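SEQUENCE-TO-STRUCTURE ENTRY
===========================
What this section holds: a protein sequence and its matching fold, both as plain text.
Question of interest: how does this chain fold, as expressed in backbone structure tokens?
***
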Amino acid sequence: MTNKDGTPIWYELMSHAPDPAQDFYGAVMGWAFDKPAGGMERDYRTFAATDGEGVGGVMKAPEAAPFVPIWAVYFGVADVDAAAAKVKSLGGSVDMEPQDIPGVGRFAFVADPQGARFYLMRGDSDADSTAFAPMKEGHCCWNELVTSDQVAALDFYGKLFGWKKSGAMPMGERGDYTFIGEGDDMIGAVMTAFETDATPFWNFAFTVPDIDMAKTAVETGGGTITHGPVELPGDQGDWMIQANDPQGAKVMFVGKRKEGAR
């Protein structure tokens, strides 16, 4: 893997119910699922976009896991052990110490100082990941950190990955919606959580061809629309919905709206 440090390289849904989750996301996203041989002992299935490129996986989580269901991201790093040590030195924590997945790579599961969890990963493959590809349907198009302290979060990720603030959009009493990255390297944004006592988390948007069809598929599949569709700023004609999947995991979908749709 040659992606630079801090690049989103894989997305993972941790769920107690992987079969219903697969049915739901298969209907909404059109993802094709597969159970690879070997690797992790517990139930793990990967999914790919319609172009055949891998985007992420669904893992059956231990029943006792307190924060499941949740979507998580793997950020690529050149040295997992060094990055995990740096997370600790910057005030974060390591939930799962660095370890290997045979034939896949080395990873660690960590949390920033405010409590948002994510993975660090050094893949065995030398090929770049295309899981985060904003212009491709079925891929992730936006990474959003919902946190309790934007200043502290930006300082942490800036020191860990070298991320930079790339402008901001005012959101009234809730402060700014702060963009992360520069130019074509922008990966997402940081925002302040609506609930003051909510645990910070990473939220992700996946690209769909038709936002209204996605909304219908979410509702038909037992999910809940919590916001939208809303038109996004800019001239791309994109619309977004925030949803909870049938097990309660938060997720966003972004796509075009056909002319005349309401």
Notes: DSSP finds four helices and 16 strands in the chain.
